[in-house]
Amino acid sequence: MKNIKTFKIACETKDYLDWHNITEFQGGLKIRDEADIEKAKTSILKYGWSFPFFVWVSGKTNYCLDGHARIKVLKALEEEGYIIPELPVVYIQAKNKTEAKQKLLRLNSNFGHMTKESVLEFVGGEFELNTEEIALPSGVIDFGTSEEEAETQKKDMDFNESYSVVVQCVNEEECEEVFNTLTSQGYKCKVSTL
After folding, report:
1. Are residues 90 and 142 located together in one domain of the fold?
2. Domain coverage including residue 180
3. 156 and 186 housed in the same domain
4. I need a labelling partner for 47 at 20 to 30 A (CA). Which of 24, 53, 151, 188 fits?
5. Do 37 and 92 fall into the same domain?
6. In angstroms, rounded to a whole number, what is the distance separating the alpha carbons of residues 159 and 1?
7. Is 171 exposed, middle or buried (0-12, 13-18, 19+ CB in 10 A)?
8. CA distances from 42 to 4, 52, 74, 135 (A)
């Protein structure tokens, strides 16, 4: 008998969906490379499917608010012959596409930061951090900095000049197109509703 390739489901919800019925929603909001997808794949194969998709339903379409990297992993696993069962989902309510986008941005907001010291304290020596398997936050405060260096970086950021361009769009679709175009060119963009 042929060895069946699969992974364990390590979370439960009341709702499950075939991942083929989940439509990507965020476009180019997050930039991912192959290394990012490999880390997500390694995590799923080692620890199982540990987190549900967050899905917003509009009409008959199930839009993915959280789980885009995992969709890419599922595509790769399916190509490798893995059998993928229906996966846990949590439905997020939004009255329209604009509200769904606002919720997606809030879901991906970082209301705080980690430092090397805070992560090591959290881990408490229970296991060794393997940066081949996890992607710790980067950006304004580098994970490799100390608490004191992080505060200095944060204060320095307050005094740096920044320049902005506001583009007024006629509808959500045009806004999404402009956002995707600019982010694909490497610009940092924010979407707001006026």
Report:
1. no
2. 161-194
3. no
4. 24
5. yes
6. 66
7. exposed
8. 18, 17, 12, 12
Q: Identify whether residues 52 and 8 lie together within a single domain.
A: yes
- What are the pLDDT digits (tens) for 171-193? 878 778 887 888 788 888 877 76
113: helix, coil or strand?
A: coil
| Domain co-membership, 96 together with 5 | yes
Provide the number of structural domains found in the chain. 3
DSSP per-residue string spanning 40-63: HHHHHHHH-B-SPEEEEEETTEEE
Residue 149 tokens, joined: 């260096």
Distance of CA 89 to the CA centre of its chain: 15
Per residue in 129-170, pLDDT (tens digit) is 666 666 666 532 344 545 565 555 555 544 455 567 778 777
**Selection from 174, 89, 34, 15 nearest residue 191 by Cα:** 174
Rounded Cα gap, residues 189 and 30, in angstroms: 11
CB 105 within 8 A of CB 27: no
